[in-house]
């Protein structure tokens, strides 16, 4: 059960010390993990968050309301630039502005991904980031209701469970996926490879359908330690860089700018905000910084580059009658797919939804949706600064669908989505295929360009790697500076084939081990 949210309180500015052993910037999913683990041995830790602490409000505690956070006080309210390959549309790019970050405003999907995901990380960043290390960190993060196994954690920090599979849409999805050649698995997280399986995704909610975020699981228990301080409604505007090292941070607090020194700064602000803060501090592409009048502390061309994300497209089907009420979070089965059999792992994720709100074509309870995700895009974009003003929104350009290979892969994924939606499991309830019936390849591509959205899984903008061009080394140190590390989804060299919440927590667990030189 989530802890009592009322106990999560922010420090008063007058109580802050002038210096801490560690300053962690961002109390999102990764920052909560890092702050917890770094404070275990008595080190003084300051965790700084730009948003607030109210995770008891309904739009956060009830995961079914997660989209209602967008454009509100719990969202940094970013959007992409118009995307030329998605019909010039600007796509909302929500980023959690509250303790727990994305883990407080996401859809609570809990998935580990595929061994191939972490083999790609190992190829880029070395053996510390391989599957065998990371599966241990997944287990450290998780407290699965089904108990511990070789792949599942039974006593970790975040409560997870598998939703009931009895809803007819869930049963139909799984039956149809199996008819398409997928193997039925009762637990899709209890195996290393997911490319040819079907089942039901897990969620990080309690049995009363309340969200269990990183703030609940990691931050709240750690705040009982006197050596961990949480500072909220405080925006870090710049890192203090001098003499080839990061000496602390500058924080906008109650209308004033305050300097706080640190033995080491851990940047955990996420795939969009971490590169933004680095560039505001003079760390990034030199030409870009000079154009904005920012003094260059370190020319690092790949800060803010390599931005990528998961694309998501909905396929609608009407039903012959009214569906039973939505159960649990509304997720209704999941499977994965290789668009090309030669791929090392899946690049498509397909899942069902048993309730379809807010669309004019169907009534919410007289339809089901098949959701098709492009999980391994080759297209790459960037995060850049709009100005030197730290309060200005960054320029976010994921460059969706720019690589023609993504078009081919996504069409294959959509074809599987249609096959599942029209599969034998749905024969008893399906009335019609509403989305692009009798679709040609050109129709499918046009539908994607007109309708695709995002999973909000922004990664790669401070990628780690053994290659000298990677901004972050395998120990998460910012190359060219000392006393500064990055630990969040921005360091992922390549995005996982699944929702990124659980992988981000595992990454942060691994980061803490590396920072503390424990393993």
Explain what you see.
It is a single chain. With 519 residues, the protein is α/β, with parallel strands linked by helices. Helices cover 24% and strands 22% of the residues. It contains twelve helices and 25 strands. Helix 1 packs parallel to helix 7 (214-222) and helix 1 (29-38) runs parallel beside helix 12. The longest helix has 18 residues, at 404-421. The model has no long low-confidence stretch (mean pLDDT 95).
Kindly summarize this structure in a few lines.
With 519 residues, the chain is of the alpha/beta class.
Largest sheet: 8 strands, mixed
What gyration radius follows from the Cα positions, in whole Å? 22 Å
The proportion of strand residues reads 15-25%
| Low-confidence blocks of residues | none
As a percent range, the share of helical residues equals 10-25%
Q: How many strands?
A: 25
N/C terminus separation = 30 Å
Q: How would the global form be characterised?
A: globular
Number of helices: 12
The average pLDDT value, as a whole number, equals 95
Structural class: alpha/beta
Spell out the blueprint of helices and strands.
Elements: E1 19-25, H1 29-38, E2 45-48, H2 58-61, E3 78-79, E4 92-93, H3 102-105, E5 109-110, H4 115-125, H5 131-141, E6 142-144, E7 158-160, H6 168-179, E8 183-184, E9 197-199, E10 202-203, H7 214-222, E11 228-231, E12 235-242, E13 245-253, E14 256-267, H8 270-280, E15 283-284, H9 286-291, E16 298-299, E17 311-319, E18 331-337, E19 348-353, E20 367-374, E21 382-384, E22 395-397, H10 404-421, E23 430-433, H11 441-451, E24 453-454, E25 484-486, H12 501-515
Parallel strand pairs: 1-2, 1-14, 2-11, 6-7, 8-9, 14-25, 15-16
Antiparallel strand pairs: 3-4, 5-10, 9-18, 12-13, 13-14, 17-20, 17-23, 17-24, 18-19, 19-20, 21-22
Helix pairs in contact: 1-7, 1-12, 5-12
